[in-house]
């Protein structure tokens, strides 16, 4: 399916501005996303850029939007958006390879401070919308999300991310930045975006691998030997699925598992000329975030392959 791979890389001085578009050169990417309150990261490599384009990429906080996918499916879709945190070029035989690292919302999270004072009765939705405006990133939150009211008002001065923490932790919510949008959902639950079904005939590659809690290794091993292993999720590999983000709902159907899960972590890896063009997912049951995990082999914890489950 090499011929079916498509991508677009947009490079500009800031989000929403006209910039350069790259579509024909060889490109590779390694994108890692989590539901945590830290910027998602991406490393992108491009072969044989013009000198002027290389210089543009090497400017601090240059914005990049990467779209990728399959021409026979839904075409190139947004897979990562962020600012350049570091970039460099090097000679590789006859080629010049430019490699740059991106942070999703890293500049806004680093630089945004906020000073607010609210009268009695202010609601958490109002505060979150004000933080969103201050950080210049859209707020994405379900309309039925839990809400909190400060009967005695609320005053705050400090980092915008600190206020996000203050509001969400006391309201039963969690926040993260996904493609330069502030995503707020109920703790451990899923977004309202349309879920995706993943099966052997819809992109699933190989058999899903179990993940289990490792906080108490001795107890987990004992229960496994008793035929009652404590599992916490699944590690799944699929053809590239750029539309997925952390917190999304996914229905997994395979020989050993059939259920609905939350995407806790994911990585997109690809090379437009050769090698992989895949998405790897860490799935958990909704409302049961992973506290620590151990890979399993063929559905059995590593080191316990002879245990019948």
Number of domains: 3
N- to C-terminal distance: 37 Å
Helix and strand composition category = mainly beta
Q: In CATH, what is the homologous superfamily of the largest domain? A: Bacteriophage T4, Gp27, baseplate hub, domain 3
Could you describe the largest sheet, including whether it forms a barrel? 15 strands, mixed
Q: Any guess at the CATH architecture of the largest domain?
A: Beta Barrel
**Count of individual helical segments:** 5
The radius of gyration computed from the alpha-carbon positions, rounded to a whole number of angstroms, is 22 Å
Overall pLDDT metric = 85
| Strand residue percentage | over 45%
What general form does the structure show? globular
Order of helices and strands: EEEEHEEEHEEHEEEHEEEEHEEEEEE
| Percent of residues in helices | 10-25%
The CATH class assignment of the largest domain is Mainly Beta
Number of strands: 22
Description:
This protein is mainly beta and 309 residues long. The chain folds into three domains: 2-104, Roll (Phage tail proteins - horseshoe like beta roll fold), CATH 2.30.300.10; 108-177; 196-301, Elongation Factor Tu (Ef-tu), domain 3. Helix content is 14%, strand content 47%. The chain has a 15-stranded mixed beta sheet that branches. A three-stranded mixed beta sheet has the order 10-14-13. Strand 18 and strand 19 (258-271) form a beta hairpin.
